[in-house]
């Protein structure tokens, strides 16, 4: 079925439906282990911080959803740029953005202001790690939650826009 998706031109919503409907069928022991380790380490961290409550667990699920949207949107947007900047199918833009995102593993306050701006607004990977921690610890909770939702939605809509503009720009060879 996965080869079917590579060969068929279909809408983004249809592709996401097929990919999520086959999520569990394509998930092996490695994927189950990663999810289990993440769940255990998340609960352990919440217990150690003294904030293990049902509300914090629901917030963590919300953070995972928003982080997934931001990551998928970033990957979709940067890979959609290949419609315009194709170098024989090889472009380094997605790799570059992923490497910039690796800086968000650490608190962004240790970086210069320009890199903080990039990690917060240009490539919003700081909203995956640092901002949820700040919300869980009670720092600027309402404003950061609103910003997280807005950045997630903006990322999703921006990636969708670029993808569909790229589809309009796409010219198939031999058809």
Automatic annotation (TrEMBL):
Coiled coil: none
Keyword list, A-Z: Membrane, Transmembrane, Transmembrane helix
One Pfam family hit: ABC2_membrane_6
Transmembrane domains' residue ranges: 21-44, 56-77, 114-135, 141-163
PANTHER family according to UniProt: INTEGRAL MEMBRANE TRANSPORT PROTEIN, SLR0610 PROTEIN-RELATED
Protein name: ABC transporter permease
Lineage of producing organism: Bacteria, Bacillati, Bacillota, Clostridia, Lachnospirales
